[in-house]
Task: inverse folding
């Protein structure tokens, strides 16, 4: 399984994470080309190699003029993303990140998500950092992200609402369930953008997960010049195939009085909170009442956030949870070039032998829509090319 471990000994910001992904191999031309699909202008993307206390790192900066600092509300940002030519999966994940950020801001300022005035985070630089990071995770085939304890820095920071303590209120809200400490540096080391990206994609870990084998290390540079290197270390690797079964929790609730239209939104929220899987099971309760059992698979680090979403988004007043073990096949992401464009493919293997290949649905759907083709034609072509990539015919004994 393609895994990314974030070593946040000097904090994290959106541009640090995106810089680290570029350092890991995300092509600059690809990033610029995809970001150009967003209907925004008035910015210049600066990418360069720098040195921070002897460590070579990639520094990314989004230079904006006056119009690049435009303040936006959540509906404005959603429309901007929807109107872009980005892949559907990237659009969906980026909008979930902004929703999570809006929820934190709304709680801090006592308003609703649609009325949140994003100020700094509605500016072009933050949109580029968030969308660019989602693009980078997809391009690198990252399936799971872990983070170390975050060092936030200390003191005060000046923002649109005045001088705020570090971590800023929205940042602190986003870091609920994620270990952090101030450290001994009187600077803002964790920004709201960095915090929401960690909260959206990463599970907390004391170190790299058991069985983790690193393949590449990238460094993303921050803006500060400190006594210690102001860099984010991102380690890209995989989980070894001889690892023991992973331990998870299954959280369940029986619900018979929720509007069915609310389930898709609730499932999205559970995934955003860190659930590994979410599913619905039709059941019959006492007195013949039809109901739904809502279940979520989560690790212990994400359990508080998953439980909070379940209680907030549904009508249940309680839930059950129990420990389970899960044994996973080796997994990696690759890509095939179809006549209509590139499609990412998920590959699973058992003891080094390919067991299954599965084209990414959203990639196939986007190409089908773009070229006016039946989705099944694109999917079948990608599947056939994937098997050929491994020297096998579809259905051949592997």
Result:
């Amino acid at each position: 399984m393609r895994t990314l471990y974030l070593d946040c000994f000097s904090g994290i910001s959106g541009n640090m994470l995106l810089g680290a992904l570029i350092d890991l191999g995300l092509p600059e031309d690809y990033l610029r080309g995809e970001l150009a699909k967003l209907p925004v202008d008035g910015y210049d993307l600066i990418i360069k190699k720098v040195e921070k206390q002897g460590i070579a790192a990639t520094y990314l900066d989004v230079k904006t003029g006056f119009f690049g600092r435009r303040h936006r509300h959540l509906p404005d940002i959603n429309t901007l993303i929807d109107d872009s030519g980005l892949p559907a999966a990237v659009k969906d994940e980026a909008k979930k990140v902004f929703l999570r950020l809006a929820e934190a801001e709304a709680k801090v300022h006592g308003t609703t998500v649609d009325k949140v005035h994003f100020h700094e985070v509605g500016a072009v630089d933050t949109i580029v950092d968030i969308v660019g990071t989602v693009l980078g995770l997809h391009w690198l085939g990252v399936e799971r992200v872990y983070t170390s304890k975050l060092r936030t820095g200390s003191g005060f920071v000046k923002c649109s609402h005045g001088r705020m303590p570090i971590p800023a209120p929205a940042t602190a809200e986003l870091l609920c369930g994620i270990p952090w400490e101030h450290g001994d540096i009187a600077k803002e080391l964790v920004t709201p953008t960095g915090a929401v990206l960690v909260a959206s994609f990463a599970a907390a870990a004391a170190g790299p997960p058991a069985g983790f084998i690193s393949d590449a290390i990238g460094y993303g540079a921050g803006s500060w010049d400190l006594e210690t290197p102001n860099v984010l270390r991102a380690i890209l690797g995989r989980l070894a195939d001889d690892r023991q079964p992973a331990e998870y929790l299954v959280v369940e609730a029986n619900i018979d009085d929720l509007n069915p239209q609310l389930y898709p939104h609730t499932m999205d929220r559970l995934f955003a909170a860190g659930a590994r899987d979410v599913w619905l099971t039709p059941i019959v309760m006492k007195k013949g009442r039809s109901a739904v059992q809502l279940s979520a698979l989560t690790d212990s680090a994400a359990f508080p956030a998953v439980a909070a979403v379940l209680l907030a988004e549904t009508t249940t007043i309680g839930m059950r949870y129990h420990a389970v073990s899960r044994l996973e096949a080796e997994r990696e992401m690759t890509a095939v070039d179809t006549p209509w464009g590139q499609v990412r493919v998920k590959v699973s293997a058992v003891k080094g032998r390919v067991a299954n290949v599965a084209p990414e649905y959203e990639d196939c759907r986007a190409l089908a829509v773009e070229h006016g083709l039946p989705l099944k034609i694109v999917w079948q072509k990608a599947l056939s090319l994937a098997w050929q990539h491994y020297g096998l015919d579809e259905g051949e004994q592997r």
